[in-house]
Specification:
Blueprint: H1 47-61, E1 66-71, H2 73-87, E2 94-100, H3 107-121, H4 124-136, H5 138-141, H6 143-155, H7 175-185, H8 190-193, E3 202-207, H9 214-224, E4 227-231, H10 238-241, H11 243-262
Helix pairs in contact: 1-2, 4-6
Amino acid sequence: MLHGGPGAHHDYLLPQYLALAERHRVVFYDQRGGGRSRSDSQDDITWRDQVDDVARVVEELRIEPLRIVGYSWGALLSLLYLIESTSRPELPKPTSLALVSPAPLNRKFRGEFEAEFARRQSSEAIGRLREELAASGLRERDQAAYRQRAFELSVAGYFADPSISHLLTPFRVMGRVQESIWRSLGDFDVIKQLENARAIPALVVHGWYDPIPVESAYLCARALRARFVVLEASGHVAHVEQPRTLFNVIEQFLGEAEASIKAPE
């Protein structure tokens, strides 16, 4: 299970993604530079480092077959891993990919996402909530509660309904790591790169109200010849907004993908 970010940690996918552990062995880890994988090193961390780290975790824990579920940046990392595994024989080969709310797949879509998220965060509704928090005196009375509320407002624009942002487990993104990884991608276009990737069973799930353009996820699904599911009541955080629907879709896909692997030729 590859979490988002980059520069974040896996905890914010919990407890919801533990639903997959009812039927599967699920491996979470904090990607290099975030959470418990932070270090004092000032060296840049690149997307290639992250791809190599996926392989190291897979080999160390002997994950076989390798079924990857990626969320947000983790979905993009899953695609980068698939692309690299096509040309690098030493990388363990994934047998299926389930991609949830994939991060923008090229620079154009990333620009559109950033503009849309900024628009939402500067909306009158969220601005009013910020003013209410500032005037509440909560910062002086209860700093922990104040930080929690400030976090909720900082992610409100990711949700179809910003009022439920309090249901997302708080997380922290290491800005230096995030910037370093995005910079390493340069003028990227993963959609074009997928044309030469190995064909494996794949699923793409995206929320209709996600600030990341639905078109980006659709083109990803088309390139992968994947099943494409749009969740009409979700933004970017489907595991909070529509968890039952999301995990039903993922479970169905994993079952079908496993059956296709076991089926005789």
